[in-house]
Recover the amino acids of this structure.
């Protein structure tokens, strides 16, 4: 039975968090703000492309978010692959909206809030930071990127992020994997954490411990029932623990 599942397995999903951004480098909460890749981030994307190329896999379609750090990471990867592959941008794949924490330096906020509250805002399943003021220069309501979008958030928990990422995945990506299509998803730390919670069946408590490194492709293999056969980071030197809920 297991052998049959492998013989009729689904396509491969490569999920990659964008390369380091300028605000990652400054240790700031970024969320929905559209910042560029840093020089290091560009190099991480290029290395990702080379590691993916070594797999010698044909990809059918790619997905990304509205944010240029994820889009540019994907475009760099495709350039390294020498492939002109269609990709779809979806706001559902955006990073979690960090509310009033947006643009703030993490170490300063940790000192201000205390470790416990800081961890709740940053890593818990269902705690939202306070809303970002709509008059803030970082408000997504003011960003032309989202001018045609309804229901723009002012803050999100990881649960809120999950509730947009996972339905989009099930409707648009999972069905293609079941058709044995190979897919690259270039997204963000929390959108991939949300997806990881679903794919790896991680509990609300354990999800706090799932970390996604920048610019390191995560290859996920499924059987024909959609169960995970295996998952690994291509850059062994920068991998994080992949959590599976037993």
């Amino acid at each position: 039975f297991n052998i049959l599942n492998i013989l009729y397995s689904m396509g491969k999903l490569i999920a990659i968090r964008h390369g380091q951004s300028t605000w990652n480098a400054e240790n700031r909460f970024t969320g929905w703000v559209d910042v560029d890749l840093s020089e290091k981030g560009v190099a991480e994307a290029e290395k990702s492309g080379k590691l993916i190329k070594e797999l010698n896999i044909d990809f059918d379609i790619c997905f990304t978010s509205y944010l240029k750090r994820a889009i540019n990471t994907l475009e760099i990867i495709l350039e390294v692959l020498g492939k002109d592959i269609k990709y779809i941008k979806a706001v559902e794949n955006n990073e979690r909206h960090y509310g009033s924490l947006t643009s703030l330096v993490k170490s300063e906020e940790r000192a201000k809030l205390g470790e416990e509250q800081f961890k709740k805002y940053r890593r818990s399943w269902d705690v939202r930071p306070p809303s970002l003021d709509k008059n803030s220069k970082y408000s997504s309501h003011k960003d032309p990127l989202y001018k045609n979008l309804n229901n723009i958030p002012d803050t999100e928990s990881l649960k809120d992020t999950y509730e947009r990422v996972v339905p989009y995945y099930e409707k648009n990506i999972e069905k293609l994997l079941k058709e044995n299509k190979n897919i690259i998803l270039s997204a963000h730390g929390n959108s991939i954490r949300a997806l990881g919670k679903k794919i790896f069946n991680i509990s609300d408590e354990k999800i706090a411990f799932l970390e996604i490194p920048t610019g390191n492709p995560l290859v996920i293999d499924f059987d024909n029932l959609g169960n995970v056969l295996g998952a690994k980071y291509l850059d062994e030197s920068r991998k994080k623990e992949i959590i599976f809920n037993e």
Summary: The chain is about 35% helix and 10% strand. Strands lie at 13-17, 61-64, 87-89, 183-187, 218-222, 228-233. The first strand starts at residue 13 and ends at 17.
